[in-house]
């Protein structure tokens, strides 16, 4: 999909994209890079990052890649410093890294809950704080985009990520207010079901159920999400902050992402989601 934005829009700018080695994050890195930004992509899997970096370089994009587990404050501090020392101050941060798995709340272990909260909530805060302190506040300039999820009506079937993403949404509002004085704008993007590497890990019947419950009757694409993020990072969004932008084919307005087991049908209290639907066991 060709970008609607003008070539060279981000010339001279540096963007950090967490989880930029795959799926939506990769599409965001590529779109910002094609429009002139230098992009720093990070994640845990080095091989995946190397492959992504090669592919971005083939598209004539300047790229740095580095291993950075967003749950680890030391990794985060080091990565932000590495990018700053290599290229100077970065003014764009896209907090895209994250992950979760379907489960019913009563079958979710403490470890599983903590894993998702640490990743999707704590990790996002650590990256955001570090970028603000090392670069954006001293420079009085910053654009932050937080990728969350469709949590408008809770997130039945994924209580951990629903709570974490709602936390990030609230953090987005708070920081929009606190950091407006530093010329930092921060917004959240809430994708519905997007055909990407993240969704490939879910059972196909679950994805199909979500597609049917989306008014537009299709999955979104990573490129569509990347265009929205690009807008929010661009001068066109210079008076926009603290908002959540849904990109979900209308899903948050109508229909649940997927069904939850009905106790009346089971003739008793809620059963675990069938394994074919759950797909992954709680760690
Ligand atoms: N696809 C959808 O339908 C959808 C809908 C709503 C929200 N989202 C969210 O959008 C984001 C991108 O999703 P996607 O579909 O592109 O999935 P994906 O390919 O699984 O992307 C997740 C990325 O985050 C990185 N990551 C995960 N945990 C990390 C950690 N602790 N530290 C650093 N990097 C980490 C992963 O890299 P490593 O494994 O190498 O660390 C990976 O590159 C995720 O946050 C996802 O939850 C996706």
Approximate strand percentage = 5-15%
Task: Report the uncertain regions.
Answer: 276-283
Biggest sheet strand line-up: 3-2-1-4-5-6-9
Global structural class: alpha/beta
Which CATH first-tier class would you pick? Alpha Beta
Domain count: the total is: 1
Could you state the order of secondary-structure elements as H and E? EHEHEHEHEHEEHHEHEHH
CATH architecture: 3-Layer(aba) Sandwich
The counted number of beta strands is: 9
- How much helix, percentage-wise, in residues? 40-55%
Descriptive account of the structure:
The chain has 283 residues and is of the alpha/beta class. It has one domain (14-250, 267-278): Rossmann fold. It is 43% helix and 15% strand. It is built from ten helices and nine strands. The chain has helices at 23-34, 46-58, 73-87, 110-139, 159-178, 197-200, 204-212, 222-233, 263-266, 275-278; strands spanning 14-18, 38-43, 63-67, 92-95, 142-147, 184-191, 194-195, 220-221, 244-247. Strands 3-2-1-4-5-6-9 form a seven-stranded parallel β-sheet, sandwiched between helices. Helix 1 packs across helix 8 (222-233) and helix 3 (73-87) runs parallel beside helix 4 (110-139). The N and C termini lie far apart (38 Å). NADP nicotinamide-adenine-dinucleotide phosphate is lined by residues 18-19, 21-25, 43-45, 48, 68-71, 96-99, 119, 123, 147, 149, 191, 193-194, 196-199.
């Amino acid at each position: 999909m060709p970008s609607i934005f003008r070539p060279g829009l981000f010339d001279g700018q540096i963007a950090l994209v967490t989880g930029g080695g795959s799926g939506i994050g990769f599409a965001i890195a590529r779109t910002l890079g094609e429009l002139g930004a230098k992009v720093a992509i990070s994640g845990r899997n080095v091989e995946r990052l190397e492959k992504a970096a090669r592919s971005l370089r083939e598209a004539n994009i300047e790229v740095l890649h580095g291993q950075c587990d967003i749950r680890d404050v030391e990794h985060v501090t080091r990565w932000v410093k590495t990018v700053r020392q290599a290229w100077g101050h970065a003014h764009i941060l896209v907090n895209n890294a994250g992950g979760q798995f379907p489960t019913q709340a009563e079958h979710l272990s403490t470890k599983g809950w903590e894993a998702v909260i640490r990743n999707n909530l704590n990790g996002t805060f650590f990256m955001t704080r570090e970028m603000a302190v090392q670069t954006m506040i001293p420079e009085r300039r910053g654009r932050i985009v937080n990728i969350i999820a469709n949590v408008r009506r809770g997130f039945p079937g994924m209580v951990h990520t629903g709570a974490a993403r709602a936390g990030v949404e609230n953090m987005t509002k708070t920081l929009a207010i606190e950091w407006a004085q530093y010329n930092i704008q921060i917004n959240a993007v809430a994708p519905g079901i997007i055909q990407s590497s993240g969704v490939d890990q879910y059972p196909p019947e679950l994805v199909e159920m979500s597609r049917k419950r989306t008014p537009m009757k299709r999955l979104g694409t990573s490129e569509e999400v990347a265009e929205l993020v690009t807008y929010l990072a661009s001068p066109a969004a210079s008076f926009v902050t603290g908002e959540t932008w849904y990109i979900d084919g209308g899903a948050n307005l109508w229909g649940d992402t997927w069904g939850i087991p009905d106790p009346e049908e089971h003739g008793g209290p809620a059963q675990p989601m069938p394994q074919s639907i759950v797909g992954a066991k709680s760690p």
